[in-house]
Amino acid sequence: MTAETAPLLELRDVGKDYGSVIALDGISTTVRAGEVTCVLGDNGAGKSTLIKILAGVHRADRGQLLLDGRPADFGSPREALDAGIATVYQDLAMIPLMAIWRNFFLGAEPTRGRGPFRRFDAARAKDVTRRELAAMGIDIRDPDQPVGTLSGGERQSVAIARAVHFGARVLILDEPTSALGVKQAGVVLRYVAQARDRGVGVVLITHNPHHAHPVGDRFLVLNRGRSLGSFPKADVSRDELTRLMAGGAELDQLAHELERPAT
After folding, report:
1. Which residue ranges make up each domain of the chain?
2. Within a 13 Å sphere around the CA of 219, how many CA atoms are in the beta-carbon half?
3. Res 2 pLDDT > 60
4. CA angle, residues 201, 202, 206, in degrees to nearest 5
5. Strands (E), the chain
6. 9-258 has which fold?
7. Is the per-residue pLDDT at 9 higher than 90?
8. Using one digit for the tens of pLDDT, what is the confidence trace for 56-92?
9. Which of 28, 32, 36, 94 would be 202's cystine partner, CB 3.0–4.6 Å?
């Protein structure tokens, strides 16, 4: 496999233990540029552990993580970020009372001048924020408004645009639609597609196959730390994803138990 054809990111039989607890075992999948890999599973499936390995919070105990076809071993979130792997967690790492443009550049503020005369370049920060959000199709009324005044979907969208602007090659989104209504979830999925179309490899972590299937290109289904398969979109329907997550036979048994008796 050449560097040109290698996935941006690849997992090969990755495993992670916490003492005697097997959190992940034998997990394999790929993340390619311009595609969305959805990681699905119910609570306790191992999604959070997988995020921490990809983001450099924890190292895997078994298997391999490859970046551009070469083995990678991230010892910290900073190492993963420097390699182009950005993670947007559910809390979004934003300060609600700060302006949108201040949050956009939080920790990476542009400056002008030199030495003791160096100052935060607010005009440039506002201009870049407005331009980058517009490039993602995000219409923000006023970049000076506190980020806390935005809807949940809008805040997610700002976080996605921020990660793309700062050079993310792989964008990991941790349950971005979990606390949103139908309309706001649709807004976020639209911006996930925007990031994908700009050549970013997206990892969408979710427990909702209805959100995953429309935007996903590949689907990794986890159950109690183990893989139920990694499927291209052509090979799995939304209903099949739901059955896999629910355990198939267990879902059929539950449906039978809940049926009203014939009268």
Report:
1. 9-258
2. 29
3. no
4. 160
5. 9-18, 21-31, 36-40, 62-67, 70-71, 85-88, 111-112, 119-120, 170-174, 201-206, 218-223, 226-232
6. Rossmann fold (3.40.50)
7. yes
8. 999 999 999 999 999 999 999 999 999 999 999 877 6
9. 36
